[in-house]
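For this section, I looked closely at a protein sequence along with its fold in token form, which I now present.
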Amino acid sequence: MLQHPDHSALVQQLTAIGQGHLFAFYDQLAPTEKTELDRQIASMDWPLLAELIKTVVLNPESVKLPENIEPAPYFQHVPQDAATQEKYRQAQAIGENLLKKNQVAAFVVAGGQGSRLGWDGPKGTFPATAKKNKPLFQCFAEYIRAMEQRFNCTIPFYLMTSTANHRASVDFWMQHNYFGLPELQVMFFSQDMLPAVSLDGKVLLETPGTLALSPNGHGGSLLALHKSGALADMRKRGVTQISYFQVDNPIVRCVDPLFLGLHEMEHSDMSSKILPKVSSTEKLGNICLVNGKMTVIEYSDLPEVLAEQRTADGQLRFRAGSIALHAIRCDFVERLNARGFALPYHRAEKKVPCVDMATGKTIKPEKPNAIKMETFVFDALPLASSSIVYETDRIDEFAPIKNAQGVDSIASSRQITTQRNSQWLQAAGIKVPRKPDGTPDCTIEIAASFALYPEDVKLKAAKIPAINAGDALYLH
């Protein structure tokens, strides 16, 4: 990145493409503010931005659904016959062998802030667990450590931040001694930022001396892996497979041998975990087959006539709900970046606070005033030469924390986690007190060091004390 960009050259460049207004308040800025604005502007890919403003902002193509949409086939969570049972046994062994050979990396997309949760800091620092209030980052680190101990392996961990939370995220890990992971095993890098653009194609200022920037979407993770050197680092370590997940789910299986094994067996470039949707309106993208290629169609874009279709046994025909958990081959990510970043950009109309160019004062709009341009990681699926889908169990690994209250909140996440843990204990013969509605009348938190799977609990059942109504139990 340029340390001292040529200001006059920047003015000339931006004036030529109709963005010279970004220097409207330049003379009023302090020297350090001038330097920062020049640095921000010099860091932008203006030829790309000019093309995106033309094609995404000013002349957007209407979304056209393909004509040939079919439900995606998927591997069921519970095998239904002996042949599938044997396939899963082989896949589990293949996945475990990938881990033992140190060929798997964990990769979390963690660029978000906790503001929607009322939390001042990176979302990964949010206290998530039911009794100990462990932050999300700690949940992932402890899971990775437990898997390493089980398979006598090393799982390098890559964390993609944003410019808004990078320093705070790194400092948090340092303050907590990397939660027991070796420092050299953890790599942080930021995704690219793009400026918000007015409806008439003008890049917005957040303040007189800063651009109104936002991350380039979770699809930008595949670009950031390349640009940051993370992919090169993986290659040096002998990593061939990336286990991708997002930061909001405290019980996610950061690496899953069975899923990775199926992915490897089927020679898949990029694979996906799904949940069967509980309703046609559940806010999960639909993984479909479009012209023979795995494709995610947003829940809001799938026509109602398709979304409501049922099979003969009454199930939703389009029921494969995407939960942003993927297994991705390193060489596939390299191919996506080989001739320029391959994913398309989408437009999102947003309310973006910005500078009034007439007065220099900040405007907080009451209706959408800007376009943010984002890429989606699932848009890589149709580019894969092969792609598989695996159904995971909702209770076992899906308790996201997205909202302050209600669905996908901290309360629902902790409730799901206790429900999962109570099932594990009951399967081991431990009695769990229940409320009249059948839900656990207690709080149960199980550390990854104690159990990764239900069968681990059975081996330690003698160590578990009796549980009374209202108890809060932590097993570690």
